[in-house]
Amino acid sequence: MDTRPRRVAGLALAFFLAACTAQVAAPRPSDTPAASASPTPRVNLSNDTLYVRSLTNSAASAVIVLDAHTGRTMQTYPDAVMSPDRKTLFWMARAGGATQTIVHVVDVTNARELRSFPVDGNLIPATVEAGRGVVTPQGDHLVLTNSPYRTEAGWITKVVLVDTTTGKVDAATELKGEVTYGFAAIAPDARSLLVNQYGEGSTGLRIFDTASGTLLPAGALGAAPARSQNGFRSAGVLSPDGRWLFSIDAGDLLAYGPTDTPFVLAVDLVGKRAQRIALPIEQKTWDFEKYLLWSLAVTPDGTGVYAVNPALGVIDELDVRAMRVRRTAQITVSAAADARLVALWQALFPAADAKRYITGGAVLSPDGRTIYAAGMKGVAVIDRETLGSRMWETTHEFDHLALAPDGARLYATSNTDSKIMIIDTRDGASLGTLATPSYAQAILRIDPRD
């Protein structure tokens, strides 16, 4: 085996590190997180029960019920999603040689099965953004799909809308073509579905009308939803009533004009319209790793949205009724590796650099006073009134955050470390860690136990 490329890379890295060591400059205040002193780790006394959505591959998923104290798996529901009110769980099983899918409806509060019904076809929940958005807010409709496959006619993606009370299929279609589709959200009245259309150098949003069973023309939502191949769009977050879907769009990272700002894309799923809320041009960056760390939190009344990125050190408070940024503030910058070292490492070993994808990186405390957000390392803790901030647990990369109902414990998933960390929200102390089941995409529900 020829080892010369590795030797060259090693020498280059060694020379670079030596140069960095010789040219260390005095750090700026924003270079180092203002982390509070790490409290002494405490014994894990949590008696919570966690419902964790876990991915095993691109098509298979499960909701796993964990004992947060022992880490023991108490129950596993294959191909499952949870209703927005977190009271009902839907899981799938195959029957008839995979020609039918049996949908099981379970009351989460007591693990009792309420009913089950068959649906023709080998189907799975329309998995998107940790399973959110595939069930209507009232839990009466569920979207199912297939694992897309290719034929001579192109890619085939099935979309099936099911009434969860009667088991009746209210709408079904096969989307065909050279482009592919991915489910994005269901309107709360179940009259339309929002889907992503991938291909032709961009990602677009399309509306599937369930009454007519047709895909509305491209551009029905306006020009705002289109995303350039040179950009990035964050995971979507729904308003509490399920009407609005919000996401952060980086815009075209290769363009830099007065109108090329990053923006929040707000899609009205009922009114079938989309709007852009421009963010300050100063928040644009070509550092793709930092752009991946945008997160959104929506207020309980749905009128306010917080766009936060601790890696960039910014937070924006948005007024949804006026569709504008109400105020912007600088927050504590989360820890990151030296940018020059990162750039060289990616140039030498591009395949070794895994990308994070935040599925729920910001959460609002139950009392509405605090925002927690995942940064490059650790968690930013932001006072909602003043937008002042500090950093907790600055040694791990987190992909999803969830709070216990009383707000006393923050659960943070780290798929890099295959752990779920429990953090005391009084002072940031560690309350213990759990091993994650496969890829822990999201914590859907937390039940305190006596």
Would you kindly provide a written description of the structure presented here, covering whatever features stand out?
The protein has 450 residues and is mainly beta. The chain has helices at residues 4-22, 288-291, 339-348; strands spanning 49-55, 61-67, 73-78, 80-82, 88-95, 100-107, 112-120, 124-125, 141-145, 149-151, 154-163, 169-177, 180-186, 192-199, 202-209, 214-215, 227-228, 237-238, 244-249, 263-268, 273-278, 295-298, 304-309, 314-319, 324-330, 362-364, 370-374, 379-383, 389-392, 400-403, 409-414, 419-424, 430-435, 439-447. The chain contains three helices and 34 strands. The strands form eight sheets. Strands 8, 9, 10, 11 and 12 form a five-stranded antiparallel β-sheet that branches. α1 (4-22) packs antiparallel against α3. 40% of the residues are buried. The model is unreliable at 1-40 and 340-354 (pLDDT under 50).
Strand composition percent: 35-45%
SS element count, helices = 3
Question: What separation lies between the terminal Cα atoms?
Answer: 60 Å
**How confident is the prediction overall: mean pLDDT?**
82
Strand tally: 34
Assign an overall shape. Answer: globular
Alpha-beta classification:
mainly beta
State Rg: 23 Å
Unreliable stretches, pLDDT < 50, 5 or more residues? Answer: 1-40, 340-354
Determine the fraction of residues in helical runs and give it as a percent range.
under 10%
Largest sheet: 5 strands, antiparallel
